[in-house]
Design a protein that fits this description.
The chain is built from nine helices and six strands, in the order βαααβββαβαααβαα. It is α/β, with parallel strands linked by helices and about 170 residues long. The chain has a single domain (about 15-170), classed as Uracil-DNA glycosylase-like domain (Uracil-DNA Glycosylase, subunit E), CATH 3.40.470. A four-stranded parallel beta sheet has the order 2-1-5-6. The termini are far apart.
């Protein structure tokens, strides 16, 4: 870890919704606040919630596959450290007995949460209704995925309104 260990996560035994991401980027590593970047802004827009709601751990947990910034490679951040999820993920998930929905962002989290699925990210996200409403596969909200969003307009037209409605109902309960 080029910047040293600094786990960035958010959870409570009362959390209703889990965001399973990849690993914090360098900006999030610096601030220590999950999704404190452009990805977080887009994710909150997709969810239809404000920052105050997003950062309420009793409502929303953020548990990435890697808790610390893994470093930068040729085409973006490196994959999450391989020992992080097997060591820490399940014991932390076991503390959250009120979870009703998990948003799964990006390929590393999707490989963990959907181990049987062998298709592309696009195919998995298109099959979202198969897993609805407990587990929801999403593309990563990174600006690096602007091209994917342009190529898949159905995602923001068809899926996001349904997701926002479900999150609204979940957080109101």
């Amino acid at each position: 870890m080029p910047l040293g260990p600094r786990p960035v996560l958010q959870l409570s035994s009362k959390s209703l919704l889990l965001i399973a991401g990849q690993a914090p980027g360098s900006k999030v590593h610096a601030s220590g606040i999950p999704f404190d970047d452009a990805s977080g802004k887009r994710l909150r827009e997709w969810m239809g919630i404000d920052a105050r709601t997003f950062y309420d751990a009793d409502q929303i947990a953020v548990l990435p596959m890697g808790f610390c910034f893994p470093g930068t490679g040729k085409s973006g951040d490196l994959p999450p450290r391989p020992e992080c999820a097997p060591t820490w993920r399940q014991p932390l998930l076991d503390t959250m007995n009120k979870l009703q929905m998990t948003l799964v962002l990006g390929q590393y989290a999707q490989s963990y949460h959907f181990p049987e699925f062998k298709g592309s990210l696009t195919e998995l996200v298109k099959a979202w209704q198969k897993y609805w409403p407990e587990v929801v596969p999403l593309p990563h909200p990174s600006p690096r995925n602007n091209r994917w969003l342009k190529q898949n307009p159905w995602f923001e037209i068809e899926m996001i309104p349904v997701l926002q409605q479900r999150i609204k109902e979940l957080l109101a309960s």
